[in-house]
Amino acid sequence: MAEEVKVPLLLWMHNESNLIALHEHQSQPQQLRQKRELVLRKLTVAYAVAKLIHHAQQRSSDGGDSAFDETLFQLDKFMVRIVPTSIETQPHGSIFTTRIVGADLLSTPPLQLNIIAPDFEVLNSFGDYDEHNEQNGCSLEVEILDPTALPLTETGGGANDTTGSSRSNKDDDELLSCHLFGILLHELFAGSHPFPEDEEEGKGLIDKEGELQESTHSSSSEPLTKKTMEDLLASSGGDDNVIDSSIQSKALSRVICMSKEDTTAATNGSSSESKISEQLSRSKYIPLKDLGFPSSLSLLVENMLQSGWGQILRPDDSMTSLKDAIDDLYLLLNDPDRFLFDSVAEQGGSLNIRPGKLYGREKETALITDAFYRVSTSGESEILLVDGFSGCGKSKLIQSVIGQVNFAGGYVIQGKFDEIAQRCSQIGVLTNALNKLCILICEKNDPIVVNDIVIELMLVFGTHLYTLVRVLPNVAMLSQQLNLFDHDEALNLSNVPYILLLFLRVVSNKSRPVMLYLDDLQWADPVTLDVINCILSDIKGNNCVFVVGSYRNHEIECQNHPLSMFIYKLEECQVQPTKIHLNGLEAADLNTLISDALGLFPRMSRLLSNIIQRKTEGNPFYVLEFLKSLVERNLLQYSLRERRWVWDAEKIESEQISENVSELLTRKISSISEESQRALRIVSCFGTSICSDVVHALSEVAEYSFLGRELEYAYSDGFMERDSPSGGYKFAHDKVREAAYGQMKEEDRNMLHYDIGVALLNRAEGLESDNMLFLCVDQLNRGQAMISTPEEVLEAVEMNHSAASQALATCDFTAALKYAKTALKLVGEGNQFADYKSILFVMANAAYSCGLYEEASTAIDAILQQEASLDEKFKFDVYDLKITMLSYFAFDNPIIQLVSRQEGKSAYITCLGVLRKLGDDAASPFLHDANDADFQRRLEQVSGQLKEVTETDLMAMNDMTNPAHLRLIHFYNQAAVISYFVQPKIIKRITCRLIELTLEHGVSKYTAISLVRYAMTLPSKEAYRIGKMAISLGNRFDLIDQTPSIYLSFYGYIAIYAQPVQLRLMNENAQTTAMMYATLLNTTISTLISNDEKVESGQEREHISKNPEFQGSLNFNGAMKSFWLGHYERCRYHCEKGITSSDVKQIKSVMMIFYNGISCFHSGKKYKSNRMLKSTVRNAIKVMRERREESPWNYGNKLNLLEAESYSFNGGRDEMAIISYTAAIAASKSSKFVHEQGLSCELAALHFKRRKELNTAVVYFKQAKACYEEWGSQVKVDAIIQQIDSIQ
Fold first, then answer.
1. 15-29 per-residue burial string, b: 16 or more CB within 10 A, e: under 16
2. What is the Cα–Cα distance from 308 to 314, expressed in whole angstroms?
3. Does the model's pTM come out above 0.85?
4. Are 1146 and 1049 in contact (CB under 8 A)?
5. Which of 880, 876, 840, 832 is nearest to 861 (CA)?
6. Looking at residue 320, what DSSP letter applies?
7. What span, in angstroms and rounded, lies between the C-alpha atoms of 629 and 981?
8. First to last CA, the chain
9. Which of 302, 699, 931, 1173 is such that its CA lies 20 to 30 A from the CA of 1215?
10. Element spanning 1060, H or E
11. Strand, helix or coil for residue 61
12. Helix or strand or coil: residue 1090?
């Protein structure tokens, strides 16, 4: 590694000049690159010198020294610290470059500046601009080491100001500093003095003491360097002859003379520019740009030299302080391609706009990133809303943080609502975004994590899993197992909001925070907004979604607007959105934007930006369009002579330029060719974008053959952008689309929509886009006013029917409903259309899926009024829908949140009516009382036959193929599901009939679930055998949609008596009520984990309490929670209620009997004298003995613990108690019931504590503590610690 070398600045300049000479033999591009690098190196030194001078001046001012030290501006006062590097050897010698690491000022005491960040970043090959990197410079960071003060680290162009100078002439000294530094810069870059005669005539002008030699005509004996320009002019008395001619040619004297002529120029009315030009010409000044240096650098030096030319002659954009120079130097280094190297000239004089740069939104950006951080760390969902006028930068603000969110591990998905492109429903915007989330999950996670997600999806969704795949097809990408569904089966009645809610519960958490950005929310429909509300108002911690929405606030001023209602509902649900309102840019930020676009120093663009601020109110989009319009009208021009942008401020002020962006864009669009305008109008009919398939299809129609070509022109003109996802085009901004669409009158719009629809209809066949049908129908419907002939009506009806059916198949129910309604509207009153009933059926399906019970019922009833004319399959499909709908609204409707027993009975009766219509003569015995002799006979017959069937026999059975039998099986299965709620006692009859049909006609996809339901009514050993057969049969049919129900029934009600199971929370989400119960159970588990006893939701408890079927579950939850928290009397209350309302064979009832038995010993009542408590304990021991016979693994430890407690509390049986406690601990450990192992240790410890054997008690308490820690229950751990503390 090369060592650092310190060289005088003058020597370094000489070496740099030699370096350029060595490159003369290289190619022109290589020479250009070397020259650019030379400029950057010298700029780095110039920046360092300026910082050192400024710091030295501040140090003198702070020290009370008011003298102006002109020696600071001499090149020989500086040293450059470099690290030399040999690059290559050329025929003319080795070429060296240097890396600059710092600079020193040889002052007293000396100052040292270290460059912390790199001095500059080498440009791409031959200095070309990198379009992927908006800045090819770097953010220079320096550190000044001053022995009289602490080290000062500075980043950016601004210099650190300490206290203000007390000198009254500080401003004049600042101007003089700028002038002298301008001379220094010119010498640094050009290697010569800016005024050549000064070097010849001015030698010895300043003596060794730093004072100007006295003139014979001077009236002052004070050193000239200690006087300001005004002082010098005052001392001259206005006489030109007072100033010695030998001084007039010198640098400082020139300042005096220019200031003197300042007054003359004002008197004679001469322009400052002409006077300056005359003086520069007289002084033989050679600008740096004439020497081959960049024009911006030359302008910077000129502005610094002009700082000493007096108030009138001095231009407005001249320097006012050395800090201005430091700022400009930093800007040149930070972004050389934009501000230094005349890139505008290379680009043909076009504006250099930064498309990805965000101006003036630092505070808003921080609010968004902070909100995401809260979501990702807390795991709780939030919403952030950004509002403002169109063009204020809402989308760009949010896009600017996406990179940070991705870097932080977030999963960013986006959707944009469209005023024109909505297919009747906007739910597709949300589902498409979530569909992309599946791709991100695959890309960002390893296969093990993805597999875990798949397993959880299967557990959570159960029979609704195939619906999830239909709503979000990309879910199938997660695993091949998720792609094995019978898509011909009708959707069950779990609606899309619930499906999406469950999906996000699984895939989003603190390790996978999801950011959902939805643009233009003002155009979202109520259905979509309700889904978002459902996601956000979910129980805290269930999902981890950061919803970010943007909208135009001036378009939702009506309180009845869907978005206004959405925000109101959020607040009602205690979801407080973070709100950001965007106004126009502040003056300073707007000036930065214009400075960047023009490549001018901000101080030079300020006058123009003030004019634009007044005309545009700082709206970023309007500002850029306004700038472009100024260029188009030649009011803003790039001067090749001056190599920078120039303008006439007065002319721009006086011009009648539109102050409305829509008018501006309309005029701009009107200026392009007619075909280009037509192309923009065509795209505007599709919304904000158009896909490549549509462009290709329309371009093949003679009438629109120009479309592809003209869109390329529109892209070149900046009206359109590439749309990467679709391969097509999108408008550069919504306002461009609005301007193009607004060019047409209403009638012209209708005609264009209709013509496009017809053109797409003729070209739709064979196109790959699945969306082509919807695009075609949307255009036809918007041009519906143009439909006149019966043939056109018929075609429109058929197209809407097809669109409705396809939308239904993709679960876009709102779109399906509106397409179906449009078709029915076109059919009219006669209803003579052949597919009229089919359209009604699609409408009924869509309406019920949208939760519109009345509309669905009306459509179904209208179909069934013509039942006699319906073919068999269609008729039973209608009945199936009616039964499913009735069942849904009876048992699983999250909207009405009550259990309608009447609707359930109606569904059951309808189902049985359909079975009769199907001609099942054997059905009658299954519809009467359970004591019917015929039923008992047939039940015994089925049981006998099934006992003879082995698993091998079952797997070898033929599949049921007869459509009539399959239909019969389907409706019996429907009846079984419904009867669980309205006629529980009839389930055994229905399952018996299902088994009969299977044995007679073969197995079907419903056989497995029928077998497991039937097994639940049998003794444990036979039940276990049949259940295992059902599991195997389910695997044969790949019943992914039924597998969760089959497994839940088998392992929850059958296998527990014959096979070890571990306690775990089952997510019972097949029913909304069960889901709410799972929420309560989750609250219980959370309570046991943490120290805070959570409050249960009254809504869930009240909802469950209205359903008698779930009373046992509710009491079990209360009993379990009370037991483990040590509230034994409350536990006994829940147990006694729960046991009487539940089947004693269910695992919940068995556990409540166990909890109740243990609680009897610790409830506070005297166990020995209470006969009721003793009776309860005896019954608990009896039940546990029976269960132990069926499953020792699950119930052996519980029996041992009950017996141990009985021995302990009855007295005189201590030895037996110790034996039983030991057995309970060992059995719990063997079964891996760590929580019950802890319970056994805890109760054993209490036994020894009652016996006063405290040391032994502590041993058992510590064992209990270890078990509870492994279990994860902080509540129990804390309780055990208190017990140990009370003993020790």
1. ebeebeebbeeeeee
2. 7
3. no
4. no
5. 840
6. -
7. 71
8. 67
9. 1173
10. none
11. helix
12. coil
- Within 475-601, residue ranges assigned H as helices are 496-507, 526-536, 562-572, 587-598
Dist CA 939 CA 943 (whole Å) = 6
Nearest to 781 by CA among 820, 809, 737, 834: 820
Phi/psi of residue 15, each to 5°? Answer: -65, -40
Residue 1216, judged by CB atoms within 10 A of its CB (0-12, 13-18, 19+), counts as middle
Amino acid at 1082: N
| DSSP assigned state of 134 | S
Tracing tokens 């901000």 back to the chain, one arrives at 602
Q: Which amino acid is at 773?
A: L
* Greatest Cα pair distance in the chain: 143
Q: Which stretch of DSSP H or E encloses residue 6?
A: strand 5-8
Query: Per residue in 49-72, pLDDT tens?
Result: 999 999 999 888 887 777 788 889
The pLDDT, as a whole number, for residue 443 is 92
Q: Tell me if 1163 sits within 8 A of 1128, measured CB to CB.
A: yes
**CA distances (Å), origin 224, targets 70, 160, 178, 219:** 11, 29, 18, 11
What are phi and psi for residue 639, nearest 5 degrees? -90, 115
* Amino acid identity at 235: S
The pairing of beta strand 411-416 with beta strand 514-519: parallel
What distance in Å separates the CA atoms of residue 580 and residue 387, rounded to the nearest whole number?
6
The answer for residues whose C-beta is within 8 angstroms of residue 1270's C-beta and 6 or more apart is 1234
- Is residue 759 within 8 A of residue 704, CB to CB? The reply is yes
Q: CB of 622 within 8 A of CB of 661? A: yes
Element (H, E) at 689: strand 689-690
**What is the tens place of the pLDDT at every residue in 597-608?**
998 999 889 999
CA distance 631 to 1157: 90
CB 9 within 8 A of CB 80: yes
H or E element in which residue 5 lies? strand 5-8
Residue 549: φ, ψ to 5°: -125, 145
The pLDDT tens digits for 780-817 are: 999 988 988 888 888 899 899 999 988 887 777 788 88
For residue 1100, what are the CA distances in angstroms to 152, 229, 1073, 1074, 1084? 62, 85, 8, 10, 13
Name every residue whose Cβ is closer than 8 Å to that of residue 354 and which is 6 or more positions away in sequence: 134, 596, 597
C-alpha span between 176 and 174 (Å, rounded): 5
Instruction: Please give the distance of CA 70 from its chain centroid, rounded to a whole number.
Output: 58
Q: How far apart are CA 1223 and CA 1225, in angstroms?
A: 5
ω into 109 cis (within 30 of 0) = yes
Cα gap 379→477, rounded to integer Å = 26
CA 1147/CA 1132 separation, integer angstroms = 17
> What is the DSSP secondary structure assignment for residue 959, as one 8-state letter?
B
CB atoms within 10 A of CB 462: 22
Looking only at the bridges linking them, the beta strands covering 93-105 and 78-90 are antiparallel
Q: Helix or strand or coil: residue 588?
A: helix
* Residue pair 1035/1054 in contact by the 8 Å Cβ criterion: no
